[in-house]
Amino acid sequence: MLANFLAMGGYAAFVWPAYGVTALGLGAAVFLTLRGYARAKARLAQFTGETGSR
Amino acid sequence: MLEYANPKRFMDLSGALLPWLGAVAALLLAVGLYLSFAAPPDYQQGDTVRIMFVHVPAAWIAMMAYGLMALASLVSLVNRHPLADVAAKSAAPFGALFTALALITGSLWGRPMWGTYWVWDARLTSFLILLFLYLGYIALWNAIEDETRAARACAILALVGVVNLPIIEFSVQWWSTLHQGESIVRAGGPLIAGVFLWPLFLMALGYTALFFTLLLLRMRTEILDRRVRTLALGRGR
Amino acid sequence: MSAWRALVMRDIRLATRAGGSAMLALAFFAAVAVLLPFGVGTDLKVLGRIAAGVLWVAAVLAALLALDRLFQADFEDGSLDLIALGPLPLEVVVLAKMTAHWLTTGLPLTILSPLMALLFGLEPRAYPALLASLAVGTLAISAIGGIGAGLTLSIRRGGLILPLLVLPLLSPAVIFGAGAVLAAIDGLPSAAMGLLAAFAFTAVVVSPFAAAAAVRLNLAG
């Protein structure tokens, strides 16, 4: 059953890379965006923490 | 510069909305993904029809993102609202990403059918040009040092681009019918049978939710960065 | 009228002096056209088919070469500020510069093209179409290129980003322009020339406004 699923009717070489690159691209976007946001928050906290005012 | 300092309402709203939006996106994508693989193989295309479920939504978002960018650019030029600049700037990299995904998945979808990884089909060619439009936009923003000037310049570029896009679409369509007969890759292949509609629909919704989640998050990041820059400027004195 | 003429003549003089953009563009155009057979082979049948596209692409690239200095030179020495303060509206100033650009690159390229087409063995009956399509199409190149030049005038090495911005926008011109020549080779009627003319007309009418807006934002602040 699993073998059939993975084989994708013989088109495995096309279907899996398509989903793979999609997962990679979207995953990278999510990861980088979240990380960018976290860093920006940290930078701002650093600034407002240092000056002690808002 | 103070106008950039704290668009409070946007930050409050997006902050409250984001967790839900992200959850909805994840849910839609999960269900859509399951249905994409649960659907039976197509009569003509076999299992390659599943590629449609990641190709078509990506293409839709690629185009929607540009429309959004153009709209934000118009608001930016007419209204000078700083959020519009932030929105346009934030949308661009994701638009480029989805365009690239549409191109790659489209190429993989076409290979079993056409025998080559690339065909100068109207749709693929238009998306290739769209990718360059996005890249040019991002390059221009990065190349101009002053942030306000960059925003205005890119706004003009986006508007020129959006006016030109239908013309480009038309010319590519015209050109491809000249050289190849009718367009080979249509949005969903020859026909979209009902059993394929649900996965397509859910994946499209999921992609949309994901795009807006990423967009809002990136906008928040940009706003925070601007606050830091403003504060740094103030301290520099 | 005389302010317009003065501006156009000035730009023409600047472009045609030694080391100016006019000769450079022409030389580049010829170089590309001559170089191509080395890469593609000398089969005149093949060259004759690709002549339209090659000459068109070479013309676009050559015209682009001359574009990044369209505003930049004046911007750098401050004369652009002075011109902008002058009697002519900025849109007219921009149009004058685009006109000068066309007169010193697009037009000479068009005139040179039959000679290049000879090297490629272009079908004789396609020559009028070649001339017409380049004459009209280079107008669009100067116009849309001018928008790119305006947007990038403050970027010190904007030369590289200018083609990236402008080439996608010019794809309809290449498609219709080369298409017109290809149709003429086969002796078929084609809408290409009309479509190209419509595109060029729209470009010439709309570009001064977009380019002036771009110049304005770069001059301010």
Topology, pairings included?
The complex is a heterotrimer of chains A (54), B (237) and C (221).
Chain A: H1 2-7, H2 12-51
Chain B: H1 2-5, H2 8-38, H3 52-79, H4 82-114, H5 122-143, H6 147-180, H7 194-236
Helix pairs in contact in B: 2-7, 3-4, 3-6, 3-7, 4-5, 4-7, 5-6
Chain C: H1 2-16, H2 21-40, H3 44-65, H4 69-76, H5 79-85, H6 90-120, H7 127-152, H8 161-185, H9 192-219
Helix pairs in contact in C: 1-6, 2-3, 2-6, 3-6, 3-7, 3-8, 4-7, 6-7, 6-9, 7-8, 7-9, 8-9
The total of beta strands of chain C comes to: 0
How is the biggest beta sheet of chain A arranged?
Answer: none
Q: What is the gyration radius of chain A calculated from CA atoms?
A: 21 Å
Order of helices and strands of chain A: HH
Cα-atom radius of gyration of chain C: 18 Å
The counted number of beta strands of chain A is 0
What count of helical segments of chain C does DSSP give? 9
**How far from one another are the termini of chain A?**
61 Å
Identify the quaternary structure here: heterotrimer
Q: What percent of residues of chain C adopt helix (DSSP H or I)?
A: over 70%
Shape of chain C: elongated
Unreliable runs of chain C, pLDDT <50, ≥5 residues? none
Helical fraction of chain A equals over 70%
Annotation field: number of helices of chain A:
2
Instruction: Kindly report the greatest chain-chain contact and the residue count on each side.
Output: A-B, 27 and 33 residues
| Spatial shape of chain A | rod-shaped
- Given helix and strand content, the structural type of chain A is mainly alpha
Strand content of chain C: under 5%
Low-confidence stretches of chain A: none
Largest sheet of chain C: none
Distance between the termini of chain C: 30 Å
Task: Describe the protein's architecture and organization.
The complex is a heterotrimer of chains A (54), B (237) and C (221). By secondary structure, chain A is mainly α. Chain A is built from two helices and no strands. Chain A has helices at 2-7, 12-51. Chain B has seven helices and no strands. Chain B has helices spanning 2-5, 8-38, 52-79, 82-114, 122-143, 147-180, 194-236. In chain B, helix 3 (52-79) packs antiparallel against helix 4 (82-114). Chain B is globular. With 221 residues, chain C is mainly alpha-helical. Helices cover 82% and strands 0% of the residues of chain C. Chain C has nine helices and no strands. Chain C is elongated and about 55 Å long. At the A-B interface, helix 2 of A face helix 3, helix 4 and helix 7 of B.
